[in-house]
Design goal:
The chain has 11 helices and 12 strands. It is of the alpha+beta class and about 325 residues long. The chain has a domain of about 110 residues: CO dehydrogenase flavoprotein, C-terminal domain (Enolase-like, domain 1). The longest helix has 18 residues.
Length: about 325
C-alpha cells in the first residue's frame, strides 16, 4: 500500500480565506474538494503539494438553483450524486455524472473537481518508483513525451466526463481569486496541452457553473470505456442541438472528449446539422465528419485506431438518441 506523503492541511471557512491561502503559498498549494482524483495522484507522487487547501467547509459552494435570467446555477462543490439526482433539471449532465466511477466515488466527487480533473496517460499514471526506473516524461519533469518522443508537447488526455457536456451546453464557469472574479465559457476553460490543460490560473478557485436555459434544445452524451463501470472515458461524444417548431436544427454544438488533452468542438459536423432534420443520412454524414479530426494517441486503454473508429459510431448513437 502506498501512503500519503506529509503536507500541511488547511480548511478555510470562507472563499476569501481560501483565495488568500493560494496567493500566499503559490505553487506549493493545491485545493481539494472531494479528493477522489487528487489524493491517489499524491500517493503516486504525480502531485506533491506542500499545502492542501480543503474547500469542503466553505458554505454556499454547493447546490443547484434555477431562474429565468441566469439559467441553472450549480455550485462547484455539488457532489456528482446530487447531479445524478437532478435528472429532471439537468438530464444530460445527470446521465454523464451517473457514468463517473462508482456510487462511492460519486458520493464524494464534485462537479468542479470533475471539470478540473487532471489529464491522464498510461505512462504517467504509474507509481513514483515505476516512473523513476523508466525515466521521467514531460508531464513528470522529463525532456520527452514517451508517447510522441519527437514532439514538443505532452499528449496526456482529458479524462472528464462532464467537460464535453458543459461545453456542448454552452456553460460558463465562475473563477475567483484575490484579484477578483471572472466568468469564462466552459469551452475557453481548456487548453489542448497535457500539462497546462486549464486556462484557470493556479490561484483561482471555481465556485459555480452556469448552464443557460434554451427552449427547443435537446442534448445527449455517450461514453466509451472498457468496463461498464468505474473506468475513465477513452472517448466521449456530446451533442446539443436547437430545433425549431418544424423539427429543423437551427443551432448545433458537437463536442468530442477523451481523445485529446481538451474536449473540442467539430465545426464541420455542426455545419452539416444546421438547417437539416435528423435523418439517417444526415446522422451518418455528421458522425463521419465528427470523427475526422480525432487523432487519439496510444496512451490510454484500448488501441488508438479503435478509438478513432468508434468516434463516428458513438457520435451516431448520440445523435440518434436525440430523435
Amino acid at each position: 500500500m502506498i501512503g500519503l506523503p506529509a503536507f500541511e492541511y488547511r480548511a478555510p471557512g470562507t472563499i476569501g480565506e481560501a483565495c488568500r491561502l493560494l496567493a500566499d503559498f503559490g505553487p506549493r498549494a493545491m485545493v481539494v474538494a472531494g479528493g477522489t482524483d487528487l489524493f491517489p495522484k499524491v500517493k503516486r507522487r504525480q502531485m506533491q503539494p506542500e499545502v492542501v487547501v480543503d474547500l469542503s467547509r466553505i458554505e454556499g459552494l454547493s447546490g443547484i438553483s434555477e431562474d429565468d435570467d441566469r439559467g441553472v446555477v450549480i455550485g462547484a462543490l455539488t457532489s456528482l450524486r446530487e447531479i445524478v439526482a437532478a435528472k429532471a433539471t439537468l438530464p444530460t449532465l445527470s446521465a454523464a455524472a451517473a457514468q463517473v466511477g462508482a456510487p462511492q466515488i460519486r458520493n464524494v466527487a464534485t462537479i468542479g473537481g470533475n471539470l478540473c480533473v487532471d489529464t491522464r496517460c498510461s505512462y504517467f499514471d504509474q507509481s513514483g518508483e515505476w516512473r523513476l526506473a523508466s525515466g521521467n516524461c514531460l508531464k513528470d519533469g522529463g525532456d520527452i513525451c514517451t508517447v510522441a518522443p519527437k514532439g514538443e508537447r505532452c499528449w496526456a488526455v482529458s479524462s472528464s466526463d462532464l467537460a464535453p457536456v458543459v461545453v456542448a451546453l454552452d456553460a460558463t464557469v465562475r473563477l475567483v481569486s484575490v484579484r477578483g472574479d471572472r466568468e469564462v465559457s466552459a469551452a475557453d476553460l481548456y487548453n489542448n496541452d497535457g500539462i497546462a490543460y486549464l486556462t484557470k490560473l493556479p490561484d483561482e478557485i471555481m465556485t459555480e457553473i452556469r448552464i443557460p436555459l434554451r427552449n427547443g434544445r435537446r442534448s445527449a452524451y455517450s461514453k466509451l470505456r472498457r468496463r461498464g463501470a468505474i473506468d475513465f472515458p477513452i472517448l466521449g461524444t456530446a451533442a446539443a442541438l436547437q430545433f425549431d417548431e418544424e423539427g429543423i436544427c437551427s443551432e448545433a454544438r458537437i463536442v468530442i472528449g477523451a481523445v485529446a488533452s481538451a474536449p473540442f468542438r467539430v465545426a464541420e459536423a455542426e455545419e452539416l446539422l444546421v438547417g437539416s432534420r435528423l435523418t439517417d443520412d444526415v446522422i451518418e454524414e455528421t458522425a463521419a465528419a465528427a470523427a475526422r479530426p480525432v487523432r487519439p494517441q496510444a496512451n490510454t486503454d484500448l488501441g488508438s485506431r479503435y478509438r478513432k473508429w468508434m468516434a463516428s459510431v458513438y457520435m451516431a448513437r448520440t445523435l440518434r438518441s436525440l430523435r
